[in-house]
Amino acid sequence: MSSKVDRAIEAHHSYKERGSKNTAREYRRHIRQFRDYLRGDVDGVESGCDADPFDCHAGHVEDFYQWMLDEGYAPSSVRVAHAALGDFYEQVETYGDDGRRGFPTVVVDVDPTENATPERLDGMHSSSKKDVEGGDKPLTRDEVSELVDNVPAPTIRNELIVRLLYQTGMRRSELVRVKLDHIDRENRRITVYGKKTDESRTVWYQSSLDWHLTQWIESERDAVFNAAESDYLFPTRRDEMMSEQTVTDVVTEAAENADLQETIYQNRAGQSVRRVGAHTLRKSFGVHFINSGGDISFLMELLGHENIETTKENYLKYSEKDLRESVARHGPSV
Length: 334
Description:
Helices cover 48% and strands 6% of the residues. By secondary structure, it is mainly alpha-helical. Among the domains are: 3-125, DNA polymerase, domain 1 (Orthogonal Bundle), CATH 1.10.150; 151-252, Intergrase catalytic core (hpI Integrase, Chain A, Orthogonal Bundle). The longest helix is centred in the N-terminal third of the chain and has 21 residues, at 75-95. It is globular, with a radius of gyration of 22 Å. This is Tyrosine-type recombinase/integrase. GO terms for molecular function: DNA binding. Pfam families: Phage_int_SAM_4 (PF13495), Phage_integrase (PF00589).
């Protein structure tokens, strides 16, 4: 086993301790257990997988989850392990390129948790927002305005986050990776990069965002501790780049403040899954784009979908009324 793995686990533990010592301890336990599982150093595994956490794939991860279930771990524990490993690989990706914050210099080509999900395993199936009627429905335009009006402090930054998500349809993982030089303010366009790819696409925003971008970039952003050392649009006082969870927290708190939040269902871990999150703004962008007469093939490009069927499945169902009215107005009658 590479000593880099142990160094990365301890660096990750130190990083998480700043937020919650209990979470850090629990995450480290699961990450170490995964490391030991790959080596064959846990009960019920006769031999190792000839891999370590820096040289494994999604199949190893799902086998680990299945081993946990077979050993009697509750589904909620498996989900915590999934969260722990996903966070571990995210921080390794962030700090491992140049060995910052105590992490060893290491490159992980593919996050093995990205295509591994506990929900595919027996005994792990649970509802999703899509399974619950109306669970993934978009906000109305008035509700988006209410969301903007009720963001928590810092107001300028958080209004900009909500407006950007809504006006561009970006994923939260894409938003936090936007750099200053990705933004063409003259033409109101942003080059967007995915979480695990160098491929890009272009999104556009409206003139109503000009003031917020100018205020943030030229004034408010400079007050952030790491702004001078960061190339990213949204640095924080701790890191050069905002975390995806912070984006979610901004949106969900604004929804609570605006009295727009509601619990869709309780998952098997006993956690409340809420209607309004960062992805809700992406959903709202897409549906409002279609309802305003936008072409679905253009929407596919704007959202970064590889297949137009994905766009149709997720966005046309909430536009059926508008499509029906459009056919009534413009369709042939003979």
